[in-house]
Amino acid sequence: MGGLVAIVVAGMLSPAPAGADELSPQEGYRLVAQLVAAEGKDSKIAAEALIRADDESLVPAIVDGLFFVPRPQRAPVRKVLERLTGHDAGNRHRDWVEYVGSRTDLRPKPGYDQWKSLQLRRVDANFGRVIYGGVPARIRLEEIVWGGVRLDGIPSIDDPAITSAAEAAFMRDRELVFGVHVGGVYRAYPRRVLSWHEMLNDVVGGEPVTLSYCTLCGSAVLYATGLDHDRRVLGTSGLLYRSNKLMYDRATYSLWSNLTGEAVLGQEAALGEKLVSLPLTLIQWGRWREAHPTTEVLDIPALKQKIGREFSFDYTIGAADRAREGVSFPVWRKSAALERNAEIYSLKVGDAAKAYPLDVLYETPVVNDVLGGVEIVLVSDVQSGAVRAYRSEGERFAAGDGADLVEDGKGRVWRLEEQALILGEGAGARRLERLAGHVAFWFGWFGFYPETEIYGIPR
Prior knowledge:
By secondary structure, this protein is an alpha+beta fold. The chain is 27% helix and 29% strand.
């Protein structure tokens, strides 16, 4: 225990100014370290001192430390938490994380960023590169949790081998792919592969892109990652925020949110950087190939030779989902408006967010709506699973004669393409811009956008 306490004391800030809580940061974090060291008598002594101090600002640090305490030895830690908060969240670490998340009024004691860094470095020393004393933050550090792997513990796919549809005998018509159209190039990434790797950095049609797939909350988002004469390359940090993947960039080690595209921690967060999301279509391979005969696809056999064998990944359909079954992480913002893992198509226009349940969309293939003051239309295909959203600019649409066609109120037929709804041909064709929505689980979306509307459910 002595070594841990010494490290904590050495890393803490100078004593708190007059008028602050009775415990200085050094003394407070020293006592927390002693408490969670779980060595019988010393832990009990620290527990008594913390209860006497009645310093609630240490609760986030105690909850972090609880993660490392074996369950049979958690009684003193739990007692302190209950006495400081007046709340009983039980013996599980995740339940206390949810409690701290719900306490938006709770402010950690100064030096908490250093404490958090110390705890995470017990798992992987590299976490000290993403969380450190004075790190710029746009999210609450209290809600960041370890996701079970180290930095880059889930290997990203970087610049993979690509093959033509004609050569892709390894693909199955009914399997789902993430279809993209960038720089005039159509490309598909099999979901069964991204379900293992979760991150993909590629260049499509000359444009650098990153496909980030948070399997926990079902959100796959395509981001433009090109910079002036360079590109931003992202990887898996191994950390989560409200059960959503936190990516990191390999240049600055800043953390980025999978769901929002925002830099949330580190140098890029201080600059207010945000990634631009691009249209992405989750669709059956056979239907994607039929609609886009020139499409390319990630070469699974080549990837298996390069990475898959090293990590023993089974790229058969559904294998990753079976391996991950039952895994979940703390999310304190919850809503019973939809089933927890109900699949939605999520859209954000300006500051307005809306969730469209997939089962509702499949029953009503063409939905005309208004979001954030913008007229939009969503077109869904239950056979292929695809959902696409476009600006409608005053037009109202209905299903057309074919999966890739819709009709407007004047009986004119529009073509659904990956970048736009199109009326006519050539330079004089009218185009309605595609919006960059994506599929997600309801709980994941609500955790970030509690003010979201739900299509078909009055507010």
